[in-house]
Design a protein that fits this description.
13 strands, 23% strand, elongated
């Protein structure tokens, strides 16, 4: 039997994994679970989509509305503070769908403010202030629906009513628009917004509304009904008329020459003078007697005073008794009229015509037309394209067509000039460079997945495998815990058990009998070695 004092001393203490039963297995399971979770996360990260910001700095009410709309549309989202994130490939779709539902809306309260419980003790001033604020907010909400307007603010100046009619002041308004990037408001849209605000507020005239954009540009003129506005309308009307004539000429000649081979420009001389004229005409042949008045006066000789003026000549005639023959003859001679006067007054009704003429502005004085036609583009049998100038006869025919298209009037002073000139075509644009190899989408996706595979392999071989080896290594400890070198049957190795052969065999048998599991492990390591 071997001497117990010759055996190597056992370690003083053992490791925690050896002292606690089952802790080694628990650690192994935790390590495997952590490794599997990391690998799954890497795979999901490589296959997942990148998220971009949809909207930022939204109020809680707007955020809730946006999230509800995204959920109903089946679009994934994430929250990052007050910002809403969606996948990169869903950003434009989400914005279009939300815009169709009018989201996000402004958080300002309009008529909703009036629906709230005002409580007791609310003053008349507060009621008017709430009503004015609600009216401003509702107008801003309506203006935002105009195409190109991103946000709007409306400020109303409503003077208090006065019992003095002469001192009454009208209302005024200021509208500030925030347009989308790269957009501008058309003159018709600006005028529509001005009239919308003026029609929504009592006693507010359109010329009392000021409209500006975020750059401080005045979009409407206070003198909207003045001469400047009238001149702008006249200019716009002239441009539209010229454009109509030019388009008419190009549509007529392009089927003959080919597309984009005719350029026509028309200058219209317009007369916007308004003339008001009243005329009254009489027809002498159409006279009709309306009224007539005649008078005749006759004087007799006996009625005239005779003799020397005095008492004797003023005696009345003798009427007593029958007249004598001499008196009858004298009376007959006296009845002969000595003076006759005839007067006649006739009123005629003449045929009269009264005409009132109000000349409308915008009369066309004359047209000046300039047309440039490109050369003929002819293709021969070999497929080569050659440019051939137009003949004078062809130019004449085109000139006649242009005159008919514009309603040419020589008496009006119209002029038409058709010229054949070869067009200089711009060189073709160079083809866009194809994206590099590393800029292509599939390459980026493949690189992302490759990085995920490399990370999984590193996790398996650098972290998981050494951890498994450490957990599966047998524990060292106990009185008979000997290394394989200590159990060598032949001497010569460092640390070999000292003694003769019989003692070594006896010691080996004793250790095998005391700890057969450890002995089997040693034999297994020998076989593997």
């Amino acid at each position: 039997m071997a001497d117990a004092t010759n055996l190597p001393a056992a370690p003083a203490h053992r490791s925690v994994l050896d002292s606690v039963p089952g802790l080694r297995q628990v650690g192994m399971l935790l390590a495997i679970a952590a490794s599997v979770a990391a690998a799954v996360w890497l795979v999901l990260w490589s296959q997942g989509s990148n998220y971009s910001r949809l909207y930022a700095s939204l109020s809680e009410r707007e955020t809730g509305q946006v999230i509800d709309a995204l959920t109903a549309a089946g679009i994934a989202y994430k929250m990052e503070g007050s910002a809403v994130l969606v996948p990169d490939d869903k950003v434009h779709q989400a914005r279009i769908q939300l815009a169709g539902q009018g989201l996000p809306q402004s958080s300002a309260l309009g008529v909703e403010m009036l629906e709230r419980d005002q409580g007791f003790g609310t003053s008349q001033f507060m009621e008017k202030a709430r009503y004015q604020h609600a009216l401003e907010t509702e107008l801003a909400r309506t203006i935002v629906n105009v195409q190109g307007v991103q946000n709007a603010r409306v400020h109303l100046a409503l003077p208090p009513p006065s019992v003095f009619v002469r001192d009454r002041k009208g209302a005024s308004a200021s509208v500030m628009l925030q347009l989308f990037q790269g957009r501008r408001l058309e003159p018709g849209q600006a005028s529509a917004i001005v009239h919308l605000v003026a029609s929504s507020v009592p006693n507010l005239a359109a010329n009392e509304v000021t409209l500006i954009d975020q750059n401080g540009t005045l979009l409407n003129s206070p003198e909207s009904n003045g001469d400047m506005a009238l001149s702008a309308k006249q200019f716009e009307y002239t441009r539209q008329l010229e454009k109509s004539y030019s388009q008419r000429i190009e549509d007529l000649l392009e089927p003959l020459t080919g597309p984009n081979r005719v350029r026509a420009r028309v200058t219209a001389d317009m007369d916007f003078t308004r003339i008001e004229k009243t005329s009254e005409e009489y027809d002498p042949q159409g006279q009709v007697v309306r009224s007539e008045q005649t008078a005749t006066d006759q004087r007799m000789a006996s009625d005239l005073a005779q003799g020397i003026p005095g008492a004797l000549s003023n005696q009345p005639p003798n009427t007593a008794g029958a007249p004598t023959a001499a008196q009858q003859q004298a009376g007959a001679a006296d009845t002969t009229p000595m003076s006759t006067s005839n007067r006649a007054t006739r009123n005629f009704e003449l045929d009269r015509t009264i005409s009132y003429t109000h000349g409308q502005g915008g009369a066309l004085r004359k047209l000046s037309v300039a047309v440039v036609v490109d050369n003929w583009q002819r293709t021969d049998e070999a497929g080569d394209v050659t440019a051939t100038p137009l003949t004078p006869e062809e130019v004449e025919r085109m000139t006649a067509l242009v005159k008919e298209a514009i309603g040419y009037d020589e008496a009006r002073g119209d002029r038409v000039n058709v010229m054949n000139v070869a067009f200089h075509t711009a060189p073709p644009l160079p083809e866009a460079d194809e994206p590099g190899f590393f800029e292509q989408t599939w390459v980026k996706s493949a690189l992302k997945q490759g990085v995920a595979v490399v990370l999984v392999l590193l996790l398996a071989f650098v972290i998981l495998k050494p951890l498994m080896s450490t957990l599966t290594q047998p524990a060292r400890g106990g009185a008979l815990a000997l290394t394989p070198d200590q159990l060598m049957l032949g001497g010569g190795g460092q640390g070999a058990y000292q003694g003769n052969y019989d003692q070594q065999v006896a010691a080996a048998r004793g250790m095998v009998g005391q700890d057969p599991q450890r002995a089997a492990q040693v034999v297994k390591e020998w076989v593997n070695g």
